[in-house]
Write a structure and sequence with these properties.
The chain is mainly beta. The protein has four helices and 25 strands. The longest helix has 18 residues.
Length: 612
């Protein structure tokens, strides 16, 4: 992934001070049963990422900043990620090399050659949570584009090449190293949204980098991260999930509130459960959150306004991320901010109304009505779950295991061996008695390479204390490679189930587990049977068309009270597409393959600077 640069031309304020405190009125607690509050579920491991910092000035190109300036930029990046992730992601400089010039002629814009030189002189060794940051002068001959690797997960280690020392661009490229994708936009001419069950129509454009308020998009500043970015890391805390089937009113804090505040409302499209929606409030005060860390020179003040932002999972990307919705027919820089009184009709029949914006309390009150999905008893519930895994090959995504598509490719764990798992998590407990697994394979058992169905597998359910326990299987699990393998078990209720696999191979790369698709079934409804006729019983069973025949010694039974409508107790389905980055496992490759270095440089819009 690459990103064109904006040169930092102003003297930056000191980073030694803490981020300025912003006093925020907390949103009222939700006392009704109309929503569920979902805690953060981090993907991967909290870590201090080690940065090897190397300054390279190819022949004929003079340095234009000092090593101290570069160190300062990394410290600013650390302050940003520290606050946005509540300490889950930190950065420190493990080693640094001041300016050096290669003996051989290298073009300053040739990131491949410059990175190779940087690796050689620094002795950098790739591995988890290790990043090589190579900075060249921010001069025209060094080009206007920064490059980062596309990591498989938050703990991936990769390379970054950048002209100049703009800290927001360093943060952007390191975000790619940690599996973050671009924050995009959806721009439609007819309505805010489009039908998620059909291909995107020609009246809707997908805008790369389109999110103006996210550093992974077109936000050339340290803004509070978007919901899609946080969701890919599993770091949305106290996420508000509405119960489906009736209007639910929610008050949200602005994004500059503490990370454990109630800041984000989310649900998934009931007709396309793999598409997630997020609602968040951005107050004009958000721009001041990082004023003591870094402020981008020349930032357009037109976007410093308050409003509600609605985004959806960008399912067109292989790297799933968020795309903010834009007001149709509005070409202004505020077309992503919803005002009080606006009403949105979204895919799947959901309706969102902006009730009130309170800039003094820095809160927004919204009402959302999400229809309930049609799920019959005994049906497949897998697509309503969030998928995660112990290890994921960089070229696959764990979200493929419950997208309803059985065609390859799915999820893979190559070159991992040993015990690996795929997990399905629902926003509330579900009862299952059967899981089907379609294992992928590209090699025979005797080949001992590539992808091979697991030697053995089982299903585990998560207990209330967080521990995992095998379900009570009623038969041995098969390992066929040409279709679904069914494992039936005693009905079990839990929010999370795992398919735990023992890889075929004994050594790394000698046969890893892979799954095309999972299905998870609720128990079939029990069909009542007619009671047997006891000889001498004066009251035989009623026949079709017979009047009711109450027993002589009982009063006629009244009809039982109607069961509560599912709208009263079932949360709207919540499936986080952006959360398909898998937790790094002990068998994951030590460094993700550097991807997308050949990607075409795109034009950025507002400032004419390119960024990828």
């Amino acid at each position: 992934m690459t990103r064109p640069l904006i040169r930092a031309g102003a003297v930056l304020s000191t980073i030694g001070a803490l981020i300025a405190a912003i006093v925020l009125a907390p949103a009222p607690a939700l006392a009704d049963t109309g929503v569920r509050i979902v805690p953060a579920s981090p993907i991967g491991e909290a870590a201090v990422h080690e940065v090897t910092l190397v300054l390279v000035a190819p022949q004929g190109v003079a340095p234009d900043f000092s090593l101290a300036d570069a160190v300062r930029s990394v410290e600013q990046v650390d302050a940003y990620y520290d606050r946005e992730t509540n300490g889950f992601i930190r950065f420190e400089i493990a080693s640094s090399l001041d300016w050096s010039t290669p003996d051989e002629p290298i073009a300053c814009s040739d990131f491949g050659a410059v990175n190779a030189y940087s690796e050689r002189v620094s002795g950098f060794e790739r591995g988890e949570n290790r990043h090589l940051l190579t900075l060249v002068p921010g001069r025209p001959e060094c080009g206007g584009t920064a490059y980062g690797g596309q990591g498989a997960d938050v703990n991936s280690g990769e390379l970054v090449f950048q002209p100049g020392i703009n800290p927001t661009t360093i943060a952007h490229e390191l975000g790619h190293n940690m599996s973050l994708a671009h924050a995009n936009a959806v721009r439609c001419t007819e309505g805010w949204d489009f039908d998620n069950t059909a291909p995107r129509p020609s009246s809707c454009e997908r805008v790369e980098y389109g999110d103006r308020y996210d550093n992974m998009g077109n936000g050339y500043s340290f803004w509070p991260a978007s919901a899609g970015t946080l969701d890919r890391l599993g770091l949305i805390d106290n996420e508000v999930v509405p119960v489906c089937g009736a209007p639910r009113t929610v008050t949200l804090n602005t994004m500059s509130a503490p990370v454990d505040a109630q800041r984000i409302l989310s649900w998934s499209d009931p007709t396309a459960p793999r598409v997630q929606y997020w609602v968040q409030y951005r107050d004009r005060a958000d721009n001041d959150l990082y004023r003591d860390v870094y402020r981008e020179p020349g930032l357009d003040p037109a976007i410093h306004a308050s409003g509600v932002v609605v985004s959806k999972a960008d399912a067109e990307l292989a790297l799933l991320s968020g795309a903010v919705l834009e007001r149709p027919g509005d070409a202004s820089d505020r077309n992503q901010l919803l005002r009080a009184g606006e009403r949105l009709e979204l895919s799947g029949g959901a309706v969102l109304t902006i009730d009130r914006l309170d800039e003094q309390a820095r809160t927004a009150t919204v009402t959302v009505d999400v229809p309930c999905p049609a799920t019959a008893p005994g049906g497949d519930l897998a697509q309503q779950a969030v998928a995660s895994a112990s290890a994921t090959s960089p070229w696959t995504t764990v979200g493929a295991v419950n997208d309803g598509i059985t065609a390859a490719p799915g999820w893979g764990s190559w070159p991992a061996v040993g015990e690996t798992w795929v997990q399905l998590t629902w926003p509330q407990a579900v009862e299952l008695d059967r899981i089907d697994a379609w294992f992928d394979a590209d090699a025979a058992d005797e080949d001992r390479r590539g992808l091979i169905p697991p030697r053995a597998w089982q299903v585990q359910a998560q207990l209330a204390n967080g521990a995992w326990q095998p379900v009570q299987a009623t038969a041995e699990a098969s390992r066929d490679r040409d279709g679904f393998n069914t494992l039936r078990f005693a009905p079990t209720s839990s929010r999370a189930f795992r398919v735990v696999m023992q890889a075929w191979g004994d050594a790394e790369g000698e046969g890893s587990s892979a799954v095309r698709e999972l299905r998870a079934f609720a128990p079939e409804p029990v069909t009542p049977t007619e009671p047997p006729v006891v000889p001498g019983d004066p009251t035989p069973p009623a026949q079709p068309g017979d009047p009711a025949q109450p027993s002589p010694d009982t009063t006629p039974a009244t009809a039982p009270a109607a069961a509560p409508d599912r709208a009263t107790d079932e949360p709207a389905p919540r499936t986080a597409l952006a959360r398909t980055g898998a937790p790094i496992g002990p068998w994951a490759a030590s460094g993700a393959v550097l991807m997308l270095l050949g990607i075409v440089v795109a034009a950025s819009g507002r400032r004419g600077a390119r960024r990828l």
